[in-house]
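Per-record layout

source: Photobacterium atrarenae
name: Nicotinate phosphoribosyltransferase
length: 447
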Amino acid sequence: MTAYESPQLTDLYQLTMVQSYLDHSMEDKAVFEFFVRKLPPQRNFLVAAGLEQLLDFLTHAHFSDDELEYLASSGYFQRNLIDYLSKFQFTGQVDAMPEGTLFFANEPVVRITASLPEALLIETRLINLLQFPILVATKAARCRLAAADKRLIDFGLRRAHGAEAGVLAARASYLAGFDGTSNVLAGQQYGIPVYGTMAHAYIQAHDSEAQAFQNFAVSQPNNLVLLIDTYDCSRGAERVIELAKQLKAKNQAIKAVRIDSGDLGHEAARVRTQLDRSGHPEIGIFASSSVDEYLIEQLKQQEAPIDGYGIGTNLTTSEDAPFLNCAYKLQEYAGIARRKRSQGKATWPGSKQVYRHLRSNGQLDYDQLCLATETPEQGQPLLQPVIRNGKRLGAPEPLDLLRQRVKQQLSMLTPALTNLSKAASFALKISPSLQQLTHQTDQRFHG
């Protein structure tokens, strides 16, 4: 077990609260829900992701002897907590939106039903495992909307905030429609296609750019994408053309050139002209360097002849929306609905379900937030059972299935919701029964 798989990867106050719950016999069933309070200004929708990693964590979480010894020596805890943690395993229920589902503000994405201490202990890691993949998957989906059918590759590992983030970002971006990643470990772990070209250092290490291209052609005859902007794009393109003539006799082809600096639209247009005039329309143009959905849309408007993009920093850090206003809140305890009423952070009480309603043309119309016990005549329930009594109900969904789900869901968005820069609202209707329960809960706890 690695440190990232341990439930000890948590905040201290989770453990101090559990200590108090045990001391006062507060171990009845609780319902917690993970949701996003408010979408970032730059986001009209979010993509559910990270569920697979959460389920893996929940079904394997336990405390090691070393961790228990550390906690016992910390001075914060009594023997009853240490004994409880020594036997800890998740035995509760999980209902969740399938990965790849589009969702909106105040909709429960994951619902946990378990004993109060058990449900609380997993809070920090649950938020940690869900927020980041959601951010990256949403950013990737927006890039896919902007790029249409152009190739998109995750180049973000080196700028990711840690090794785990780099691997999770590769999976989340592929799930949301990217074609592959440069991350070799992610390729091995998740079966994601891996892509790579060369670095400027490779060109600089040779005495001439032409020699660098020739050597790479010998070593990578079937993966020949040449970086042409180390010194000058136009001259680099001329050397590619010269090499292409030499390789033709060997029945070898150059797949593409990569431009990694400057005005990408201008440079791509100039290089495209050079390649076409020399009789090489088959050589594609791949661009990188501070690419995101906004730049892709701008280049599309310019009709820049770019066939694909490598997207790194802006994707892996979700640069324009680097965090979610998300929460994991208690909604029911001991059979009684609960709700938070803090200003700007109020919640809807009780165990809930989201029903999705579509227009006649298949586009999203509105979502309805209902009690989990309600069964409306229309609408599709989004939360599905995935764990019962601590056991998974099915095998992990293949990534290809998740990709198809995202693609299908993106096709359901209205034009307003696909806009990358203008905010658009999506209606979340509250069922009468939930409104009534909210009133009753307020009366019960606040008079």
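summary: The chain has 17 helices and 19 strands. The longest strand covers residues 29-38.
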